[in-house]
């Protein structure tokens, strides 16, 4: 599926692990249940994992050094648990790899995603990136600190998003 | 739309209602399309109502209306009058603002 | 900032600078874009609904309803006049003040909303986060900045929380809505224990202010009195601690059942200790420096608030005393509708928007304009909307109170019933609300008409009557000394009576006294409850005190023995 990064479409070098098959070589995203198998893989390639909304990010703590990507998910756009998961991965667990949003997020949530630490968004085939780009550029100010550590603006809590 | 407090019964007849997309106002399906006046509503036997609602829903986007459903009517009134208080308020306006009421008899808004 | 040179900062609320204006303008453009996409058919109603709700646009029984935020309830005259203008131009000439210090317009057209929001933005107002599963408008004390027992002006902290919560990246898609109230004095006038988070200022050991934090209170289907999660939070940790609470809620709050999704259910399910442990763990792990609320930040926000020059003539109290002695009607009103002010020669005025037989909280554009005029003339250009659906003028000179009373009288706003039985809180109910079971307004009108006599009202004394049209409890019936809840019995409107609730320091949830009654029987029942109280009360007792002393039995008997 296509990816959005910084408001523009990008190629996706990752593939999901195929069910009932060995993980194989390359950049592969495994379900949480196959994390140990992924970490033990001897084939070359980077490893990603899909963190379901009900899972604790801290469950990945020991695995983090072996992970290049963590995918969080929005079963429906109103289910905002992934925001806290992404922010926890960055702030508490110090994860610096790619955090990808999957499922059904809206363009209107794009800046929220980014400010919680999400770097890429998986969007359906044929998605028009324009609304995403528009929302990315919508606001010149944010009213609270975020894990992006944006530059402070003027007084109080305001930040200039990058 | 939450249609709580709107009950439809087995027998009798109903009218079809919706809200207009642009201004949100309550409208009733009549012989010549959607009308603000329940007096102009088509009275449909409950045996046929589900099919009629389906038809109306299929045209909702083209008609610029939303939240389409059926409303049970009182039997034997001169012009259609809903059974439940909720739908009476939708049809005739808030009971506490006589100035905005639509009387069942005249079907006119007193504004 | 650029705009401050030309005019003094408005008293009582934060003043926008260019950055804030630009933000609001961008937000209006975003909504204009969304409305255009809806009207063109690009967005379905299902897709559009959450977007319009984020801008306070509901669909109610008769039309769209727009809920405009009044941050911490405070406005200047220019903002108030804008509300009157909107009522006149885009609505049917009136607005409705809500129990969350907001104002609602009931007859709005979708097409007009971008224009309305643009006009609101020109006076630093908006409808952001007045709906949806996000942090809602932060409410505070209506006597803020004026009350004698105040430790801090809570509006500065409410403004900090407003900014912090505005488009908060992590907390805009919570399991359910989230309401915060903050009181600047230890005496809780904001119903802190009935909010998702209630913050109450208290004196700290070193003279610095500390905050008591309550969590998990609320009304609705499962009324719960909030519990104290922190006893003495330092100001600098206010944001960090609230972040921690919200993170725990966002991660663990239920999302499978809308009726169990509020934070109160999570706190109950985990138990306070386990919930607090999670919050403390998050608080300990987070980058506290990032969220620290420094004294400089607080000072910077406070500096954007205008402050009144509270200088009254030395003889102001004497003039007021003489005016009161000369006019018994004025004296009665002054007795019920004022509150002491911290500055000598000043007084706070509470205006009842509830004339006998009227609709609680409804004001015409003419009345709204009159309120703006009075604010300008008598109260430093500032007024407040209260959670009792009334209006407060915060800083009135005592020697000018009589003139203010006359001005109120001309606008039909001098009803002397504040805190009395005519001062009923009622939600819009079935006359407007799509979720209602029964109408709340007619019953409020009948009760207030029955007890219209001001002398009788004063005899009855302080009492809160609260009416909700359904279990969502927007009329806070659980917290009423007498609570009335509309229920649906086979398509007919019935009303359940509860007694003994309170939203103040003695917070409690009212208890149901028996089977639901039809409308008129409910009004009769209230009359009999009052008679019973008048017969049984001891010297100095409020209705609530007598009820608590004697229990339900005599009251229940009075309603059902003859019913
Ligand atoms: S309590 Fe019920 S009827 Fe009243 S405003 Fe709230 S949702 Fe509507």
From TrEMBL, chain A:
InterPro entries: UCP030820. It comes from the Bacteria. This is DUF934 domain-containing protein.
Automatic annotation (TrEMBL), chain B:
It holds the Pfam family DUF2849. The lineage of its organism: Bacteria, Pseudomonadati, Pseudomonadota, Alphaproteobacteria, Acetobacterales. It comes from the Bacteria. This is DUF2849 domain-containing protein.
Automatic annotation (TrEMBL), chain C:
Keywords: 4Fe-4S, Heme, Iron, Iron-sulfur, Metal-binding, Oxidoreductase. Residues 131-283, 424-559 form the Nitrite/sulphite reductase 4Fe-4S domain. Gene3D superfamilies: 3.90.480.20, Sulfite Reductase Hemoprotein, domain 1, Sulfite Reductase Hemoprotein,Domain 2. The keyword Magnesium does not apply. GO terms for molecular function: 4 iron, 4 sulfur cluster binding; heme binding; metal ion binding; oxidoreductase activity. Residues 64-122, 357-410 form the Nitrite/Sulfite reductase ferredoxin-like domain. It holds the Pfam family NIR_SIR. PANTHER family: BLR3264 PROTEIN (PTHR32439:SF9), FERREDOXIN--NITRITE REDUCTASE, CHLOROPLASTIC (PTHR32439). This is Nitrite/sulfite reductase.
């Amino acid at each position: 599926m296509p990816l959005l990064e910084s408001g523009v479409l990008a190629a996706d070098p990752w593939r999901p692990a195929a069910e009932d098959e060995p993980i194989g070589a390359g950049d592969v995203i495994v379900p949480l249940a196959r994390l140990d198998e992924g970490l033990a893989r001897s084939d070359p390639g980077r490893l990603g994992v899909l963190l379901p909304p009900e899972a604790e990010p801290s469950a990945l703590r020991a695995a983090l050094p072996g992970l290049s990507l963590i995918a969080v998910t929005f079963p429906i756009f109103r289910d905002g648990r992934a925001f806290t998961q992404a922010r926890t991965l960055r702030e508490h667990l110090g994860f610096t790899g790619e955090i990808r949003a999957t499922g059904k997020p809206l363009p209107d949530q794009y800046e929220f995603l980014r400010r919680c630490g999400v770097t890429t968004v998986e969007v359906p085939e044929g998605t028009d990136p324009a609304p995403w780009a528009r929302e990315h550029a919508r606001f010149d100010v944010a009213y609270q600190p975020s894990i992006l550590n944006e530059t402070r603006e003027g007084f109080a809590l305001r930040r200039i998003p990058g | 739309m939450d249609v709580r407090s709107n009950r439809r019964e087995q027998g009798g007849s109903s009218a079809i209602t919706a809200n207009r997309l642009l201004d949100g106002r309550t409208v009733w399906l009549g012989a010549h399309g959607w009308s603000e006046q329940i007096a102009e509503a088509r009275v449909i036997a409950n045996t046929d109502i589900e099919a009629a609602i389906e038809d109306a829903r299929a045209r909702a986007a083209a008609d610029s209306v939303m939240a389409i459903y059926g409303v049970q009517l009182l039997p034997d009134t001169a012009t259609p009058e809903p059974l439940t208080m909720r739908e009476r308020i939708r049809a005739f306006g808030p009971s506490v603002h006589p100035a905005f009421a639509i009387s069942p008899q005249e079907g006119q808004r007193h504004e | 900032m650029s705009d401050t040179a030309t005019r003094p900062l408005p008293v009582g609320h934060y003043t926008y600078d260019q950055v804030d204006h630009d933000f609001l303008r961008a937000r209006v453009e975003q909504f204009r874009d969304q409305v255009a996409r809806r009207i063109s058919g690009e967005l379905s109603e299902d897709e559009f609904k959450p977007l319009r709700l984020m801008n306070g646009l509901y669909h109610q029984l008769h039309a769209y309803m727009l809920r405009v935020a009044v941050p911490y309830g405070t406005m200047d005259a220019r903002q108030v006049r804008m509300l009157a203008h909107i009522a006149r131009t885009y609505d049917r000439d009136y607005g409705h003040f809500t129990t969350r210090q907001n104002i609602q317009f009931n007859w709005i057209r979708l097409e007009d909303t971008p224009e309305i929001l643009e006009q609101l933005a020109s006076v630093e107002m908006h409808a952001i986060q007045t709906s949806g599963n996000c942090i809602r408008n932060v409410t505070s004390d209506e006597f803020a900045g004026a009350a004698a027992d105040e430790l801090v002006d809570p509006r500065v902290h409410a403004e900090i929380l407003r900014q912090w919560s505005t488009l908060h990246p992590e907390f805009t898609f919570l399991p359910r809505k989230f309401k915060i109230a903050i009181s600047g004095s230890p005496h809780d006038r904001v119903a802190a224990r009935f909010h998702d988070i209630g913050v109450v200022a208290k004196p700290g050991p070193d003279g610095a202010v500390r905050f008591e934090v309550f969590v998990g209170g609320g009304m609705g289907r499962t009324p719960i009195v909030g519990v104290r999660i922190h006893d003495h939070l330092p100001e600098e940790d206010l944001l960090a601690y609230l972040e921690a609470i919200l993170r725990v809620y966002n991660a663990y709050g239920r999302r499978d059942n809308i009726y169990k999704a509020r934070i109160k259910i999570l706190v109950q399910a985990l138990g306070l200790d386990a919930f607090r442990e999670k919050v403390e763990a998050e608080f300990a792990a987070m980058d506290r420096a990032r969220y620290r609320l420094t004294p400089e930040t607080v000072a910077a926000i406070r500096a954007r608030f205008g402050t009144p020059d509270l200088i009254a003539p030395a003889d102001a109290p004497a003039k007021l005393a003489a005016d009161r002695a000369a006019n018994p009607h004025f004296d009665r009103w002054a007795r019920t509708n004022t509150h002491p002010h911290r500055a000598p020669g000043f007084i706070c005025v509470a205006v009842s928007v509830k004339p006998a037989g009227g609709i609680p909280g409804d004001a015409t554009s003419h009345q709204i304009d009159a309120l703006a005029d009075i604010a300008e003339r008598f109260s430093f250009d500032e007024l407040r909307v209260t959670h009792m659906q009334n209006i407060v003028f915060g800083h009135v000179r005592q020697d000018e109170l009589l003139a203010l009373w006359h001005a109120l009288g001309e606008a039909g706003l001098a009803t002397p019933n504040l805190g009395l039985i005519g001062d009923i809180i009622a939600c819009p109910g079935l006359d407007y609300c799509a979720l209602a079971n029964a109408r709340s307004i007619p019953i409020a009108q009948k009760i207030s008409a029955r007890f219209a006599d001001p002398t009788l009202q004063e005899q009855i004394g302080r009492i809160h009557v609260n009416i909700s049209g359904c279990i969502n409890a927007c009329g806070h019936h659980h917290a009423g000394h007498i609570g009335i809840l509309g229920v649906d019995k086979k398509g007919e409107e019935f009303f359940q009576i509860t007694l003994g609730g309170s939203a103040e320091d003695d917070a409690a949830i009212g208890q149901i006294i028996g089977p639901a009654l039809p409308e008129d029987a409910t009004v009769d029942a209230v009359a009999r409850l009052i008679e019973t109280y008048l017969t049984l009360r001891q010297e100095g007792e409020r209705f609530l005190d007598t009820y608590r002393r004697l229990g339900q039995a005599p009251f229940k008997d009075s309603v059902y023995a003859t019913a």
